[in-house]
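Reopening this one. Same input as before:
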Amino acid sequence: MAVSAGESVVPASELAAARAEIAKLQRVLGKKTLENEILKEAVEYAAE
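Same output, byte for byte:
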């Protein structure tokens, strides 16, 4: 179907690797977001 639609075809292994990388990056982003929130709270607490 992708070929008839003029879209490129990606090997399943490449797709799986990309999905794994996305999941890893989402976990890292979540961790960094949490760290950022903790640091914001620490700054607010220190300012009081």
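So the earlier flakiness isn't reproducible anymore. For the record, The two ends are 62 Å apart (CA to CA).
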